[in-house]
Write a structure and sequence with these properties.
Length: 100
């Protein structure tokens, strides 16, 4: 499972709502390789307040990627103001290439 944060009104979110087929590309820092993960995307609930379950999941995603935030209250307020959602991609297939 791949989880990312996006705004509810972003084109990628609207496109995935219409057609949930998704791909996620990761490249090596020097472009010496890449990995593509394909699967089915699910869009989580829109974050509407700092204390709703959507904000809790956004905190969890942030922690797994970056670690601790210096001000979780501020972070949660921004997530609600930006109308953030978590997009979950269930990976069904991967492929890629590497020089090494």
């Amino acid at each position: 499972m791949i989880r990312i944060s996006a705004t509810a009104d972003r084109a990628k979110t609207r496109n995935l709502a219409r057609d949930p087929r998704a791909s996620f590309l990761v490249t090596a820092p020097d472009y010496a390789g890449y990995l593509v993960a394909e699967g089915h995307a699910e869009i989580g609930a829109e974050c509407r307040s700092a204390d709703d379950p959507a904000a809790d999941e956004l905190v969890e995603v942030y922690r797994r990627i970056v670690g601790e935030h210096p001000d979780w209250t501020e972070y949660r307020a921004v997530m609600a103001a930006e109308r953030r959602v978590v997009i979950r991609i269930t990976v069904e297939r991967t492929y890629g290439w590497s020089r090494t």
